[in-house]
Specification:
Helix content is 36%, strand content 26%. The chain has 134 residues and is α+β, with helices and mostly antiparallel strands. A hairpin with a 2-residue loop joins strand 3 and strand 4.
Length: 134
């Protein structure tokens, strides 16, 4: 193999490696894991503890009885799903966690997977919460 081709091949491989490392270098957003976060909360925890564990909610709703619901939404996509070429191979999940507060303390916790349609509806209008098991 001539030296020119070898040099071109080596430079091409180095460029490919650098692009791969740069693409995987970091995330620009905080990663959420709603299922594990909500499982660490208990009834009776204070609102400040909820906010420290789960961060600010995506939506907050007032209840007729004076309580409040904190809604946390999560849309997770695999790396394959985010790629342009192989998006049909990847998977995508939609999660909802609801923390109900009364007098500043947790009175109920709920978590469930959502369909893509439920997620979009709830993201656009938080009053459209789907049925949750207590």
């Amino acid at each position: 193999m001539p030296a020119v081709y070898r040099r071109t091949l080596i430079l091409g491989l180095i460029s490919l490696i650098l692009l791969t490392v740069a693409a995987c270098a970091g995330r620009t957003h905080q990663v959420r894991h709603l299922a594990s976060d909500i499982s660490m909360l208990e009834r009776g925890d204070r609102e400040q503890e909820v906010l420290a564990m789960m961060g600010p909610p995506d939506h907050r709703r007032s209840l007729a009885d004076g309580g409040a619901e904190l809604l946390y939404l999560e849309h997770r996509q695999s790396r394959m799903k985010r790629s342009l070429l192989f998006s049909w191979l990847g998977n995508e999940d939609f999660h909802l966690a609801v923390v109900t507060l009364h007098d500043g303390r947790v009175s109920n916790l709920a978590y469930r997977l959502l369909s893509a349609e439920e997620f979009r509806r709830l993201r656009d209008d938080p009053r459209q919460i789907p049925e949750l098991a207590p």
